[in-house]
Amino acid sequence: MEPSPAPGELGAMLQAAGDFASYPGLHSDDAVRQFLERCPLPKLLGALQSEVDVPGMVETVTECLDKVFCSRYGASLLPGYGAFIQAGLLTDSKGIRKLACKAVLNLLDKAEDSAAAVETVVQHNLYPVLINCLIEGDEEISTIILDSVKRLAEIPKGAEIIFPPDGQGSVQLDRVAFHSSSLARIRILSLIAKLFTVSSYTATAIRDSNLLSIFEDEIKDRRDMLKTLSALEVLYELVEHPHSNIFLLKTNLLQLIVDVINDSSADSVIRSRAALISGRLLSSADAFTVIDQSCVTNLLAAIDKILEMEESQNTDEIESALETLGLIGTTTQGAHFLLTSSNVARHVVETSFDRQGRGRQLAALHAFGSICGVDRQEDQMKLDGQAEEYLKRLVYTTAANSSKLTPSALLLSILQQDPDIRIAGYRAISGLVVREWCLREVCLNSEIIRLVTDPTMETTKLGMEARYNCCVAINKSLSSSHLLHEKSLSELIGKLNDAVRRGPYLSERKRVEARPVVVPAERF
Questions:
Q1: Contact 467/449 with Cβ under 8 angstroms?
Q2: Among 40, 54, 272, 299, which residue's CB has the most CB atoms within a 10 Å radius?
Q3: What is the C-alpha to C-alpha distance for residues 69 and 467, in angstroms, rounded to an integer?
Q4: pLDDT, tens digit, for every residue of 472-494?
Q5: Distance of alpha carbon 51 from alpha carbon 205, whole angstroms
Q6: How far apart are CA 464 and CA 263, in angstroms?
C-alpha cells in the first residue's frame, strides 16, 4: 500500500493535482517530471487508498494521474506500479478502475521497454483481470480493455500471453464466452475481431483455438434479433481484414450466412447485413480457391430471391443485395461465376437503367461497374469468352426491352440524370469500354462524347474526376482499337485527346478578371 499524504500536505497536493488535471491537452515529459517532484507519485496513489473522506479527492487525483500516465515519462514509471494497477482493476470504484485500465494501455503503448511492460502484465497476472473487466465493466471501460488487449497482442511476447504456444493459457476465451451473458459474448467477439487483425500468428491462433465457432453459435441462434445483429456487425468488421476470408471460408460461416438470408422470418436488417458479409467474404480471388462452389450457388440463389421481391418489399434489403453482387463481381473469378453460373447478374444490368428507384439504381450501377472490371487490374478487366458473351447479351437484351432500344441510348440516359447517377455511370462506362462492342456504341453516339468531354459538366471534385477517368478509359481503349483509323471518328478522337490533355479540373469557361469600379461621390 502506498503512503498516504500527511493531513497538512493533502490540501496543497490536491490543489496542485487539480491545476495539473485542468490543463488543456497533454503535458510535456518535462512538465510531468517537474510536477512529480512536487507531488510524488507514491503519495498521489496513496491518496486514492486513503480513508480520509475529502469531497472530490478521488476524481481530482484520478484525472491528474491520467494526465501523468498519458505522457511517455509517466508511462515509463508504470512497470514499478503493477500492484497498484492490479488493485485498481479489481476495485469497485469506476473512476479508479477506468484509470487502471488506461494505465495498462499507456504501459503497453508508450513504455520504451516493451519487454518490461509485458513482464509487468505477467508478474501481476493482469490479463485475466482485464478480461474480467471486459465482461463486467461498462461500455467505456470495455472499449479501453479492447484496445489494451489488442496492444498486448501486437507485442510478440504479449501475444503468447493471450495464445500460449502450448494452448494452456490462464484464460480460455471460448469457455469464458460459454458462461457469459449475451452482452459479454458480443464483447468477446469484438475482442476476437480485433485480435484477428493483429498478425498471422493471432489469426491462426484464433482459428486453432476454435474461437470462430463462437460466431457460428451466435448466428445460429436467431431468437434474439439484437444479439444476432450485434454478432453480424462484429463479423462485418472482421471480414474487412484482407486475409480473413481464407480463415472464415474454411468454417461453416458462409453456409450459416446463406441460411440467414433465406430465413423469411428474420428481420430485413439482419438479412441485409448477412448479404454484405457474404459479399466481403467472396470479394477476393483467393476465396474461390477454398470455398465449395455449391455454397456460392446457394448464396446467389438466396440473393436472387431477394431481388425477385415485389417493389413493395424492403428497398434497403434490395440495395444491399445489389451491393453484394458488386462485391462478388470485383474479382475475375467472382464476375465469371455471376455471369455463367446464375441468372442473378441480370438484376444488376436491368436495375442499372431502371429509374423506378434511385437508391436501387445507384447500387446497381456501382455493382455493374465492378462486374465490368473497373476495380481490377487492366489486364484482368475482360473475362473469358463465355462470360463476355453473356455480359454483352445481357446489355443488348436490356436495351431491346426498354424504350431506348440500344445500349448507347441507355448509357446516354444515365449521363442525363442527377450528379450521383452520372458519377456511377461514368464508372460503369469506364469498365464497359474495354469491350469493342461497347466502345463502338459509345463512340457512335456523339452526345455521350460531348457530355464526357464537357469540362463544365460536373461541379464537384468527385464528379470531375469520375468524368475525366471515363474520358481516359474511352481514349485508351480507342488507341488500341481499329476504330482509331475510322475517318468518321477523327473529330471525336480530337475531342477526347483535348479532354485528356486538359485534366479533370480545368474549365474552358473564360475567367472574368476583377475590374476596379469608380463610383461618383454623390452616390453616397
A1: no
A2: 299
A3: 51
A4: 998 888 887 776 667 666 777 78
A5: 45
A6: 43
